[in-house]
Amino acid sequence: MPNDELMTGLGLREPLNGYSVPVAVGVGSDVLSPTEASGGVPAGFSGDKYSQDLLDKAKQEYGFIAKQNPVVQVGKGEGYAETWPKYEPGAPEQPRPLTMAPGRVGVEVFNPQEFKPADLAGEMLHTDPYANMVRDYIRKSLTPQQVDAIKQASGDYQMSIQMGLPEDRAIQNAVDSAIRGYAIGQWPAEVNAGIGYTPQQKYVMDNLVKYMKQGKL
Question: 72: part of which helix (H) or strand (E)?
């Protein structure tokens, strides 16, 4: 996406110290209280009940999830989860589950014992238009030193390389991981600090966090 289109899509205001940054409109400085979501598997585990409880708690904590209205279900697979964008059929060896309507975003949870509402929010970043524009903005603004730091910190980069993905795709996966690490706290504070984000980059991602919480710009 050309820079001018990217800036227009983000609804940018005046440049900050020479950089244009997206602003989440109408968001104050108050910190929202977390919900009582624990993310653990409840007693008398039921996949359907777990999925609905997880989705309900995640919507309470992250307003932007309700806008996408995802289908969430417990599945079997490697890792923590698999996100299915709308109309994504999957590969022959791993097709889209028949229980997920093609016209809705779907999330399969593979590790319900550890998968928290915040993790569901992280999965939904893949399919949210505003989050994707922020990701593109961050990707374009990273210095070579920051890219190297993200590659070192992200297990997704190493996994992508081992899977034979191109370098650019591996870096994109690493940047996705870094944004989740910052936005929902998947990475420790010292790891995020080690990336060396500029004030402008932090400002962009802080506004993404506010958008995720409030569900609007």
Answer: strand 71-74
